C-alpha cells in the first residue's frame, strides 16, 4: 500500500449516490476513486474526456486514453456536452490535480517561476479555468504534501479559487483533507490520516491553514480495497 491509495480512498468518500462525475484525460487516481465508490455500492455516472462513458469494467494501462482500458460502455460523451452540463449546474463533481495550490484555493498547472521565464513549463490547464468554477463540487488530489505544492501564493493562477457562491472544494493529500471555507475564503484542515499530526501537516506547508475542531480521522485503504485497486490497475500506473 502507498500513500496514493489513501488519497484515492479520500477522494472516493466525497462522492454521493447519483453524482454525475467528470474526469480529465488519463486521470487515473480520479478514475480509480469513482470505481472504488461504485465498488462500495454507490450509483455514480462516470463521464470523461476520451474514453467511453459508463464502462462495465476498467483495466488501467500505461497508455493515455487507451480505448481498450474501458470495456462495454454506453457510448462517447463529447467534451462539449460535458461543458454544457457544467454550465447548467448539472455537473456534480469534477476532479483536478495541481502542481501548486495556495490558501485561497488558486491552482497552478501552467508554469513554475515567472510566466515569461519559467523554471518549469507545465502541461497547462485545458478547461480548468472554466470547470473549476462550474462544477458543484471539486475534488482535488495532490500526490505530494509539501511546501512546494501547498504554497502561500501560486506562481501562476491557472484557475482562480472558489468564491462564496462557487463550488465546494475538497483537497485530499497523503497526509490530510482540506475543505475550502467560504466565510474566510481559505482552505481549512478538516481531517488527518492515522499517525499524522497537525504539526506534521502544517510543517509541510508554506502557509498555516485554518483548522476545524474536532478533526476527523480519515480511514486508510483496507486490504480488500487495495486488492480491488490492484485489479483495476495491475501496472500500478496510479503511483507514477
TL;DR?
The chain has 6 helices and 15 strands. With 240 residues, it is α/β, with parallel strands linked by helices.
Describe this structure in words.
- Helix content is 22%, strand content 26%.
- By secondary structure, the chain is an alpha/beta fold.
- The protein has one domain: Glutaconate Coenzyme A-transferase (3-Layer(aba) Sandwich), CATH 3.40.1080.10.
- The strands form 4 sheets. It has an 8-stranded mixed sheet with strand order 2-1-5-10-12-13-14-15, with helices on both faces. A 3-stranded mixed sheet has the order 7-6-11, with no helix packed on it.
- A hairpin with a 4-residue loop joins strand 13 (176-181) and strand 14 (186-192).
- The two termini are 14 Å apart.
- The model has no long low-confidence stretch (mean pLDDT 93).
- This is CoA-transferase.
- InterPro entries: CoA_trans_fam_I, NagB/RpiA_transferase-like.
- Pfam families: CoA_trans.
- One of its GO terms (molecular function) is CoA-transferase activity.
Amino acid at each position: 500500500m502507498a500513500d496514493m491509495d489513501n488519497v484515492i480512498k479520500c477522494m472516493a468518500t466525497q462522492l454521493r449516490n447519483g453524482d454525475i462525475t467528470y474526469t480529465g484525460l488519463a486521470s487515473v487516481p480520479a478514475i480509480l476513486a469513482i470505481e472504488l465508490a461504485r465498488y462500495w455500492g454507490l450509483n455514480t455516472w462516470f463521464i470523461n474526456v476520451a474514453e467511453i462513458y459508463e464502462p462495465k469494467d476498467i483495466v488501467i494501462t500505461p497508455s493515455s486514453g487507451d480505448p481498450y482500458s474501458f470495456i462495454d460502455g454506453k457510448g462517447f460523451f463529447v467534451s462539449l456536452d460535458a461543458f454544457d452540463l457544467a454550465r447548467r449546474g448539472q455537473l456534480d463533481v469534477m476532479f483536478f490535480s495541481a502542481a501548486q495550490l495556495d490558501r485561497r484555493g488558486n491552482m497552478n498547472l501552467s508554469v513554475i517561476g515567472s510566466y515569461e521565464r519559467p523554471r518549469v513549463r507545465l502541461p497547462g490547464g485545458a478547461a480548468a479555468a472554466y470547470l473549476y468554477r462550474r462544477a458543484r463540487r471539486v475534488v482535488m488530489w495532490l500526490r505530494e504534501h509539501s511546501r512546494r505544492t501547498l504554497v502561500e501564493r501560486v506562481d501562476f493562477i491557472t484557475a482562480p479559487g472558489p468564491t462564496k457562491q462557487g463550488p465546494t472544494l475538497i483537497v485530499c493529500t497523503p497526509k490530510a483533507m482540506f475543505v475550502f471555507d467560504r466565510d474566510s475564503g481559505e482552505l481549512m484542515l478538516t481531517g488527518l490520516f492515522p499517525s499524522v499530526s497537525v504539526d506534521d501537516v502544517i510543517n509541510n506547508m508554506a502557509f498555516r491553514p485554518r483548522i476545524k475542531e474536532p478533526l476527523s480521522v480519515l480511514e486508510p485503504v483496507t486490504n480488500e480495497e487495495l486488492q480491488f485497486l490492484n485489479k483495476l490497475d495491475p501496472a500500478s500506473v496510479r503511483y507514477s
